[in-house]
Amino acid sequence: MRNLIPSRRQVALGTITGLAALLVAGSANAAAHSTIDGSKLSLFWLLPFAGILGSLALFPAVAPHFWHRNYGLAALFWGLALLVPFAAIFGAGAAFRELAHVLIVEYVPFIALIGALFTIAGGFYIGGALRGSPRLNLTIMLGGMMLASFAGTTGAAMILIRPLIRANRDRHYKTHVIVFFIFLVCNIGGALTPLGDPPLFLGYLEGVDFFWPLKFLWPHTLVMAAFVLGVFFALD
Predict the structure, then answer these.
(1) Can you give the residue range of the structural domain that contains 83?
(2) Cβ–Cβ contacts within 10 Å for residue 105, how many?
(3) Can you tell me the distance from the alpha carbon of 136 to that of 207, in angstroms, rounded to the nearest whole number?
């Protein structure tokens, strides 16, 4: 006789499917309209966001054992730190609609974009006999900054970090190369299109013109990039 007891995987899949169906069914208008005017919220509501960013930055260094075993609970804690006060002040219905709005309109498209860029970039391999000279390192970082606006900061980093590491593997002092790569390619880079930067992509999903960053952010990006590249070239 076929075993009628569902496996853990089936239970988890069924639970996730049911929650997703409930979420979509209970928030038909959430994908089109948000009920809360974010411009009228106080800075107090940024504290959970600052908390999870601080956790991501500090816990892997100061408490790695705790973090690697409990990072899911930490994310849940900061999520509830926002949702519970929000529901208490604005009502459970409004909190549910806002959560559905974020999940359907922002989170799912963002994860789809990141997943696509991650998958595509993972198929690139740059070979060759590379020597980590200051000029080569500068060229890789400059190219990575420009690439990040089209392949995303994650995609550009995946494509270029491996050749950068191989090129500098024989150098004695090389830690600063990776640090500046993170500054330039993973942060400053990608600021000119919604494909390259998560906040810009979320703005695009909310109606900001696709080419708005290219029109208005290029002077700031150029100044910041020139300054950091100059510091890196002087140190390298």
Answers:
(1) 42-90
(2) 18
(3) 39
